[in-house]
Amino acid sequence: MVTQPQIAHLASRALIEVSGEDWRSFLQGLITQDVDTLSPGQARFGALLNPQGRLLFDLFVIGREDGAWLDVEKAHRDALVMRLTMYRLRAKVRIAPDETKVFAAFGADPGQGWAPDPRLPALGWRAYGDFAPNADEAAYDAHRLALGVPGPADWGVEQTYPIEANFDLLNGIDFKKGCFVGQETTSRMKRRGQVKNRMLPLAFDGQPPAPGAELLNGERRAGEVLSGQGGRAMALVRLDRLEGALTAEGRSATAEVPAWLPTSS
């Protein structure tokens, strides 16, 4: 039996067009991902950080013949356009919203016109244009959460370091590309060789606790519950407090560490 791909319109995502003579050098000096070697049709995952190294905006950069698309959270698109415009100075770059729709496919290969998700092969593919959806965004989010991959609802704005949100494990940071905003802090955290906190999924009986609920190991604070649905949630967890009984809001929680996520680094 041939499995059909699940295709979802990601209404929470939107595009920014970046073009012009200097588009590559402009983005190269700002975001965590390398764009100098980006090919048309290729997608890469990255972020724009603040100067202190905390996450401002997650993004996918998609190569085009005459520039790139930035696939970003729709609610923050205008703020990102303003931030990029502030950085533009004299660079010959055009920065503008683009109303092309964002789609994700998972479960089976959707065929031509789709770019593999650069974070994790099991996540599926992304595409831009007009497609016939047969799944909703909630189904895609459940698929992502089942794989233990956090999303924008988990890191907020200027609250989280990208390594805590696993960007280094999900191909979201190129440590060899040269300078980017927030690089000093990000590189220092990587060089230390020990990451104390990471986002990972938790399983609960029933619905997950409210975002912000304290995760406890006995009486010791072990982390904080972030977003969730259907008995699972993401949490920012202290890796040295994974062993033992975990609870949140008085209910038992089970940490489910994905195979791709080491509990020490």
From TrEMBL:
SUPFAM superfamilies: Folate-binding domain. InterPro entries: CAF17_C, TrmE/GcvT-like, YgfZ/GCV_T_CS, YgfZ/GcvT. Residues 197-262 form the CAF17 C-terminal domain. The keyword Membrane does not apply. Keywords: Transit peptide. The keyword Ligase does not apply. This is Folate-binding protein YgfZ. It comes from Phenylobacterium koreense.
